[in-house]
Structure formats: C-alpha cells, structure tokens
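User: For a benchmark we're assembling, each entry needs the component sequences followed by a predicted structure for the full assembly. Here are entry 17's components. Please fill in the structure.
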Amino acid sequence: MEISFDRLRGFGEGALAVGVLDGGKLTDPAASVDDATGGVVSRALAAGRFRGQTGHSLELLVPAGIKPTRVVLLGLGKAEDFTTAAAERLAASLVGRLSVGGEETLTIAIERPKKAPLSEAELAAHIALGAKLRSYRFDHYRSVREEERPTLKRVVISTSEAAEARKLWAGLAAVGAGIFLARDLVNEPANILYPDEFARRTRELEKLGVTVEILDVPAMKKLGMNALLGVGQGSAHPSRLVVMQWDGRRGRNRNGAGPLAFIGKGVCFDSGGLSLKPANSMTGMKGDMAGAAAVAGLMHALAARKARSHVVGLVGLVENMPDGNAQRPNDIVKTMSGQTIEILNTDAEGRLVLADVLWYAQSRFKPRFMVDLATLTGAIVVALGAEHAGLFSNDDELAKNIVRAGAREGEPVWRLPLGDAYDQLVKSKIADMKNIGGPHAGSITAAQILQRFVNKVPWAHLDIAGVAWQDGEQKPQIPSWGTGWGVRTLNRLVAEYSE
Ligand code: BES
Ligand code: MN
Ligand code: ZN
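Assistant: Structure for entry 17:
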C-alpha cells in the first residue's frame, strides 16, 4: 500500500474520508462535501444517530454531484481528546473496513480540530502510521479467496503541511517497517523459524548498515555460556547468539559513554523440555521468541531512519525440546558469569538463556544501560493480562523513562518490585541458585534471577508474555496474532537518550 501526502484540491476518485466532530459539527472538508452534494451530509446526520462520536462512522455511497464513489464520515470525538493514538486508531479502522471493499484509492481529509493536542503535520503522519500498521498481512501460508484480496492500493492524506508531514512520516515509516519485521518473526511457525533461520533473517539488516555477528555453538561453548546451551541441547536445531550493532553517530561522541544495549529472549519454540508443557499451554509457544523479534525490529527501525545513536541488540536463540540429550531436572549448569544454577524445571528456560546473554552484553559492551525483553512468565499474564507489560528495574530513572515512553507509544508498562526477600526465594542448597522460586510471585523471582547477571549495570526487564501476541480481541492497528510489541517504545527510548 502506497502512502502519500498532498493538499486536497477538489475531490479525487475512490473513497473519501472526512471528519465530523462530537456533537455533529462538520469539519471544513465535510462541509465542502455537504455543499457539493446539495446537503447529503447534513441530511445523513439528521436522519441517523451518528453525531461524530469517537469510533463511530457513517458511509455515504456514490453521493451525487462529486467524484468520489463513497464518502465516509468519521467521528473525531472531542477535539481535545484527538491525540496521535486516536488518529492512528481512526485511520487503522478506516483502512480495515475499506481494504477489500473494491476501492483502490482512499483519500483521508481530516482537518486538524482546533484544540487538538497535536500539530497538523503530526496528525497527517500518524494517520499514515495507523493506515500502514493496519495494512499488515501474514497470509502467505494459505490460499486467499478472491474476495479477501485487498483492493486498496493508495492512501492519500490531505494536509496543508505536506512537506513537514512527509519528514515526520519518514521516521515513522521506519518504525512501521521494524514492527512488521517483529510481527513476521513472531507469526512464523517454529518449523520454519528455528534459531539459524532467525539468525539468517537478521543478516538482512546488513543491507541497512547494521553489523551482524552470529555466534554458533562452539563459539558459545568457548565463552562458557552453558546455561543458554543447556536449554538448546535437546533440540535438533543448534542454538545461536546474534549480536547486532547500529552506530549512527557519524563521528560524534565516539569516545564517550558506551552503547545502549537491548537483549531479547529468542526461544523459537518452548515445549517446556523434559518438564513438558500440557498440550493447551504449548500452543502459541512458537511466539516465545517475541523479545528477540522486538530487538530485531528495533534494529531495523533505527537503521532505516538512520538514528544518530549507538545501539547493540543481542538475541539468544534456542529451541527448548525434550530428547535423549535434553537437560534434566536437577542438572547444574555453570553460567558464563561463573555462577551456577540448579535446574528444577526445564520449562523455566528463558531466564537461563538471558543469564548468559545479559552477562555477555555487559562484559563486552559496557553499555550505558541494558533493557531485556522476554515472554518470561505465565504469572505476568495472570497479574497484568494483555493491557500492560511488566517492568522490573534496578534503576528508577531508567524505569521512569520506560514507563513514559510506553505510555506515549500506546504500549503501557507497569513496574513491579524487586528486593532481597524475593531474591532469597531462588536460593539453592547445592548451587548458587535454582531456576525457579516457590509458587508465589513467579514473575518477580524470574526477574531476581536475571538481576544476578547484570553486574550492577542500569538495567530493566520487560516481561512481555501478555502483550507479544493477541489471542482475544484484535486492536485496529494490529491485524495479526503477533503484535510487534516493544519496537515503538524502545525506538522512543533510544531517541530520548541519545538523539
Ligand atoms: N515461555 C514461558 C512463559 C509464557 C507463558 C509465555 C505463557 C507466554 C504465555 C516460560 O518459558 C515458562 O514456561 N515459564 C514458566 C515458569 C515456571 C516453570 C516457573 C511459567 O510461567 O509457567
Ligand atoms: Mn518455558
Ligand atoms: Zn519460554
């Protein structure tokens, strides 16, 4: 789908969307349609219940007197509530309803409501982002019936600030592309996307200027990453560690502080291992690499928009399978850090992978901070559902900035506590720690284990088990199972820290 910005002159062909404010007040474009059609818009408003409420809309087919084949009246709600997020949702819903309806061109002419908390150019660019995010499809594994095939090819956004909107859109389009990559990776089944295939897909980022290193099993053995390797040892697919680097500083500040580091859990399939999951809990576990997908998506976004920052992305890629060679309950593994872990449940594998990747990240890069993303615990889904990701951090400033970035990007996060009393719950009699706590506070004890591997670097952990994919109701901007959660928030965090 092609997206462009232009100032509307007269009415084009195809579908035209115009805004109506809460209470039924017409925006200028809506008023011009009304004039050109001899009052069709006013009559439609008078005849029905549509009054421009948020999320409501009304479609007028082939209004006489003007070129468009249909006009959609969009409820903008109250001007002061019309945020970038509202603009995205509106455009996403609109593209959703028109994409297979037969039209090839959609013109969106929403004048910025006075008092709206965004500029005209921001409005246009976020309309574009909403349209783009909704246009995502993951349908290459099924035959698509003729009537499901999208007809919509072009979205033209009418704006008086087209040049400025195009500039903003260049940045947002890069983020959109990163989100698409993350969604693709999460949606791919595990027979296609195993560790080495994931690694190959990150190689594609080299075209954008990202440096990609792939560590294989012998390389990780040499580094002593036995916790990560133990998780993957029951799989027919060998484990990988991918290190991605984007340096867009162009000579500035090269000797200054270390890079920002992002670390992703990349369990391409989590069967639970010998502590096998029951059948119903196992479905969906192709998505257990969503943290790694978000990191790859972030690297894509940063490189595509040529972010002026130095960022490293590390993803630990494994498959957790039962097998004659699989890790057993009661095994003890020595991590790269030297600390030992007693495995009591092979299904608590994400923390084992992250233990080695976090340690490696801080020792090699001396980062300003590390943020890890992981579909780590079912307990976080119990606590927060699909509304918030869980946040844990050893640094109040970093935590505050992540909470704010998430709120701004429509990816809310909620901070949960860490502390010595929780840390006690992962003590082992026979090793430095065990890989599970007791029956309570499962998301926190998991985070306590991670914290033992961050070596006091400012660090935050996002448990995204509830938000990485959607099994329930679909959001208008997210038309697939994999959500691509995190790319937006991390992209904003990078921008705020280093640009
Ligand atoms: N990948 C799962 C966590 C998960 C559960 C993600 C549901 C998404 C939806 C993780 O590896 C896991 O199995 N965690 C266990 C830990 C337990 C054995 C201590 C869990 O949450 O049950
Ligand atoms: Mn597991
Ligand atoms: Zn897992």
